[in-house]
Fold this sequence. Notes:
The chain is of the alpha/beta class and 732 residues long. It has five domains: 3-94, no CATH class; 114-206 and 710-730, no CATH class; 209-348, no CATH class; 360-474 and 483-498 and 510-521, no CATH class; 532-699, no CATH class. The chain contains 17 helices and 37 strands. It has an 18-stranded parallel β-sheet that branches. It has an eight-stranded parallel β-sheet with strand order 13-16-19-22-25-28-31-33, with no helix packed on it. Strands 4-5-9-8-7 form a five-stranded mixed β-sheet. The longest helix is centred in the first third of the chain and has 25 residues, at 32-56. The radius of gyration is 29 Å and the shape is globular. The chain starts with a helix and ends with a strand.
Amino acid sequence: MNAIDTGQARTDRLYELLPAIHRIRDAERGYPLKALLRVIAEQVNVIEDDIAQLYENAFIETAADWVVPYLGDLVGYRPVAEAGDPANSTPCEGANRALVPRREIANLIRTRRRKGTLALLETLAHDVAHWPARAVEFFKLLGWTQHINHPHPTRHRLANLRDLDALDRLGGPFDAMTRTVDVRRINATRTPGRSNIPSVGVFLWRLKSYAVTNTPAFCDENRGPHCFTFSVLGQDAPLFVKPQAEPDPTHRAEELNVPEKIRRLAFKNHLEQFVGDNRSLAIETDGWAGHKSGEAVPLSKLVAADLSEWKYTPATNHIAVDPVLGRLAFPQHQLPKHGVRVSYHYGFSADMGGGEYHRSLRDPPEAFTLYRVGKHEKHHRIGGALEQWRKEKPKHAVIEITSSGVYVEPTHIVLPPEHTLQLRAADGVRPVLRFIDWQTDLPDALSVTLGDKSRITFDGLLITGRPIAVTGARERAAAPWVCGGEVIIRHCTLVPGWEIDCGCEPKRQTAPSLEITNVRAAVRIDRSIIGAIQVHEDEVRLDPMPLEITNSIVDAMSPHRQAIGAPGETRAHVLLTMRQCTVFGIVDVHAMPLGENSIFNGCINVARRQIGCLRFSWVPENCRTPRRYRCQPDEVIAAVKARIPEDAAKRASEIANETLRVQPRFTAQRYGNPAYAQLALECAMEIQRGADDESEMGVFHDLFQPQREANLRARLNEYTPAGIDVGIIFAN
């Protein structure tokens, strides 16, 4: 029995207790008694669920979020009040979960018993902030004159220039080189130091390691038929370690225990630790050099190399791998004739844009028909599933892709009125839809023709090569607004610029990723990465179309290009709602009912300023926006005007400096980089904690990293001995 059937049974259980004669008479009258008992049963279910939860609330593993602070209070847990009272989950439930971690309370007594140990700091980082960590005592790396009675042959010596591995780890979390003393405190606010006697550093990894399993590699034919990249998009993407669990709580983290980039020298010296089943990467080449189909290339055939200029040529029956650039090269006279499939790990900040991470699948509420597409399924192509869907014509259907392959085929969907269709990836896979120039005289986008009150959903897909083009079923200039139609894009990546080169530069910088034409439906985008959005609607006779974007990145690849607009760089006829988003480009819309906790790297221009509100966001000055509330740089400008009311020249200079200071800074602004859209460490605190719940503005708001960092700092100070200075150092 599925979830829908179970819910129906709970709703009608009181009705099923009635004698059959009453149910027969109720059916003759149109089921009025059944409707009444459904309302009563709904409240009965609520009370029963609440009673059942009372028992679950006695255990930290199963307690509701609002109970966790009370359980912590029983064992003496003291929360860090960075976002109000953690016991009150109404204003900021997500921030409270970050401030009162369930795992920390569960391990509180055990943690207190280990107070003062170095490995405990790594455990605290994992329990409190959910970040992998490595703790380093810097006094052990200081150079001093040793006593002749207590020599330490492996410590406090000069740098060994012949030790290439130690030099490769220089300056990082696993650096073992000796230093001279640095008297600055490691936890200083402005200019922290590291190498001092009381200094202990906790290195943290903010980026996560995400898997890509058994997917085709990209052949860079412009460089040569022997040149491949692990990324199917063709960009240079560093390979990341698949973190392995530490053997015990007292173990200090090593390179294989954290989501670190794989170094060339480490890959060369310890190939067996990175390649193979359940490891960081694997390569399959059907029939190449006598290898069987479905078997990974053995370690003896792999060679670590620097493929920066593609100058290195491997020997016969060998494959050169560059983990820093994510490249692999074959002998020029021994090319793979049946393709190359790779499994590897890449780095990113959060679960968004589609991937092999866990995400909840949302089935249609009504009964639906499921078509599966994959290597071991009935349909091997999306076109085959669509053809069967057209023949059977179910009202509600789901096409689910079950393998992380690349699907290169034209896709055209015509959705009848009042029908729904989901084109989605199964949980735990990342399919790639790659569109090429199939027809020279026609566009080759993923085209969707939407009927009245119909709904199309794209879920968990990576789409490259062309945009998604959604059009109405017919010319609807005189038609009224039809409620109920939807276009939903969730956990998807519509590659900005359609394609990217090896340096992550887009190939079509002016091309939109989503085109909407004459569609009378609401468009909703959630946890996705998308290029420019172009909307073509009748502005005279039709009401504006709702467009809602949450927890997503809209990238026009320049702050001076249009991220959301209409053809001809005019205003899109939409009502735009944006929450927790990062926008690289200009937003031109009819009205903006709500914009909050977002970063607009380009200007916002709305036609109806009296509608809506823009709150707790960053937007450039002199933009035509709705009413602003607690936005930047407005807040710092108002503070300067209040502080310097008379001296106009000094006030103007100070305003310019403050505006520049609070301008958002990013680690990377090109899609394909691991730290894409991540706020830089030097970003102003007004941006890092500028949201309404004191989290960061932008797409990674829901990570609640400022609260996690503040909580961890407090715990580190609590669990370290007196006289020790503890500092947090972000490794990525």
